[in-house]
Amino acid sequence: MTMKYTLGANELSAKTHNLWKSILAEFIGIFILNFFSCAACTQAAFKTGIDTYANDLTLIALAFGLSVFMAAMTIGHISGCHINPAVTVGLLAAGKVSVLRAVFYIVAQCAGAAAGVASLNALVSGVAGAGPRGLGHTSLSMGVSEFQGLGFEFFLGFVLVLVVFGVTDENKPDSRFIAPLAIGLTVTLGHLGTVSYTGSSMNPARTFGTALITGNWEHHWIYWAGPILGGVAAALLYVLAFAAPEIDSHAPEKYRQVQTDDKEMRRLNA
Question: Which residues cross the membrane (predicted)?
């Protein structure tokens, strides 16, 4: 019975879990993310010389961060708004989601990302700046090795999942009010810090979508291995070392914060 619930077979028929609604939410969430964020990339690219392009990195960073913020506010209560295989696998590693749900989520995320970029490509076809260069496909910059790219993407996945766990910790209920903003700003920070090196994917499905439509699969494995390995490392670190102490549900509401602080002080003293 335990294995059945770990694998998630019960979720196929259990109405309370709303698995199919959650899968649709993941599809729509990353569709919007890829459509609008990659659309910003088509506008951010500008020509500086013959076959030489530069990007407005701040515009790109804000577009991705705001897209994630918007998606989290819209579908967070339905699916948790993973919209990122690195987040899903991190939650799976921590035992927060079942294997079946994780698989369905990742498939929906990849399909939604591809559909978003395909829709964008159809709409901007023939427009100046559109095409493989302007669709926001992530790639390693000149001089960045595969090892360096993997390292950048590892830490991008690490910080994103670490923040996700921190703001959704069930023993830190106050953090949930700012969770969408915190996660969106983390995505913005990641782009501001590393977009010049790897394109700052931090999301395997997001890169899968642009790779599928542009046909550019160069170094594609980096954009899966890096964020997912970083996400799993962050998930395990948070669960094993950083998780907030459990709050006594029987304590009066006004004493719970004091109780939490007292437990934390006793843990530190020990």
Answer: 23-46, 58-81, 102-127, 147-165, 177-197, 221-244
- Asked whether the predicted pLDDT for residue 20 surpasses 70, the reply is yes
Q: Can you tell me which residue has the tokens 């980096």? A: 222
The 8-class DSSP code of residue 96 comes to S
CA 42 to mean position of chain CA atoms: 21
| Amino acid 132: pLDDT | 46
Query: The CATH number of the domain where 48 resides is what?
Result: 1.20.1080.10
In contact, 88 and 102? CB cutoff 8 Å: yes
pLDDT at residue number 255: 44
Tokens describing residue 211:
């790779």
Crossing angle for the helix pair 204-214 and 99-124, to the nearest 10 degrees: 40
Locate tokens 């913005």: which residue? 188
Q: Which residue has the higher pLDDT, 85 or 6?
A: 85
Residue 8 · residue 99 · CB < 8 Å: yes
pLDDT band at 1 (very low <50, low <70, confident <90, very high): very low
Looking at residue 84, the DSSP 8-state letter turns out to be S
Residue 63, burial from CB neighbour count under 10 angstroms (0-12, 13-18, 19+):
buried
pTM of the full predicted structure?
0.85
Number of domains in the chain: 1
Give the helix ranges, DSSP H, for the chain.
2-7, 19-44, 57-79, 85-93, 99-124, 146-167, 179-198, 204-214, 222-237, 253-269
Q: Is 126 left (phi over 0), alpha (psi -120 to 50) or beta?
A: left
Domain that includes residue 224, residue range? 2-269
